[in-house]
Amino acid sequence: MFKNSGKKIKKFSEIVFYINIIGSIILSVYWIIDDIRSLFIVPFLFISSFIISLFLYAFGDLCDNVDLIRSNMYTLTTIMEKRFPDLAEDDIEEDDIKEDSNDN
Description:
Layout: H1 5-34, H2 42-83, H3 94-102
Keywords: Membrane, Transmembrane, Transmembrane helix
């Protein structure tokens, strides 16, 4: 359930878009038959459906990109630690931390 959440969010945004468009069409037909003044509201229904789905899809894409960056960073850090073991931050001493906090 928690694997590939970005792809699931993107698929969910597509489903939400189609449901919103179908609901907007049904609602707009009902409103147009009932009252002609509601004709001005119809374009806002379609625009809001598009915007909601766009933000959901963008969030899903953001999740995919973060997963990709995380996997690339892990590979990069393991390579760098093997090539340059003296750059590893495992041996930070407490004196260095105290000096950094005193600089503020």
